[in-house]
Write a structure and sequence with these properties.
Rossmann fold; alpha/beta; 269 residues; 23% strand; single chain
């Protein structure tokens, strides 16, 4: 673990598209952590809010300079663990594959489908082998806490949803989009969930995806301008920030309600 305890943090936030800074918190430092897996997406900002210590990293780097297929997910998760993080809140922007999942809505996915192709999916490349369970890939306890907060905030949200993660950086064809929504029954589509949530589970962290819908995927054949997407994204970021400020004070330092901290039991060979 990190030698300087002043950087030790309980909560990690991996900011998605549009959430590149941690200016809603009290920033105390900005640090670089060397990892066995290379460089993290950017320097990690150490901050506080309501007596909670938070480590923040922009997933795509500041100014969105890293495409989704080039994000060093291993380095980001390893660095969070090095700081002592045991809870990761992971906002991201997604497209909608179903008419009821509308632009501006927040989705708390409870399942995913992996359509990525060439990412590094595990910390266990041998000689120790890990078959991590992903039957319920997101922390059930944290999800329930966030659902209560979303109800109190009166934000339009969906408590469940299936997130299909594609390789990117290109968007889907119409044929692919219709395949995802009709045959695979996916609800939202993005490019960054995998392998981030898998690696967090291998590190025995609680992980929750907070997905915000920016637009309908190409299946809908709805004409959407870049201006409209940017406006929706901006509103989504404001809602995400309010939600984070509501959630963080309720996160307990000791995570013993869920089973996330015991994920490696019976998983290692």
């Amino acid at each position: 673990m990190i030698k300087n305890l002043k950087y030790k943090s309980t909560i990690g936030i991996i900011g998605g598209t549009g959430l590149y800074d941690s200016n809603i918190f009290n920033i105390t430092d900005e640090i670089k952590i060397n990892t066995p897996y290379g460089e993290t997406s950017d320097r990690i900002t150490i901050c506080t809010y309501n007596e909670k210590k938070i480590a923040f990293i922009p997933r795509h780097g500041k100014n969105h300079r890293i495409p989704p297929h080039k994000v060093n997910y291993q380095a980001n998760i390893w660095a969070m663990k090095e700081l002592g993080v045991n809870v990761i809140l992971a906002p991201s922007a997604v497209g909608s594959l179903q008419p009821q999942y509308k632009p501006g809505d927040i989705v708390l996915p409870n399942q995913y489908i992996d359509f990525t192709k060439k990412r590094r999916y595990t910390f266990y490349d041998g000689p120790v082998v890990c078959h991590i369970s992903q039957s319920d890939p997101f922390c059930t306890d944290l999800r329930q806490t966030i659902i209560k907060d979303l109800n109190n905030l009166q934000f339009k949200f969906h408590p469940n949803g299936t997130y299909i993660c594609i390789e990117g950086p290109r968007f889907s064809t119409k044929a692919e989009s219709n395949y995802y929504r009709t045959l695979l029954k996916a609800d939202i589509i993005g490019m960054t969930l995998i392998p981030e949530c898998i690696l967090a589970r291998e590190m025995e962290m609680c992980y929750v995806s907070i997905s915000t819908v920016t637009d309908y995927d190409v299946w809908a054949e709805v004409s959407v301008t870049s201006k409209e997407i940017i406006e929706t994204l901006s509103k989504n970021v404001d809602k995400t920030k309010k939600l984070l400020l509501t959630i963080i004070p309720k996160i307990m330092e000791e995570r013993n309600i869920c089973n996330c901290s015991n994920s490696l039991e019976n998983a290692l060979v």
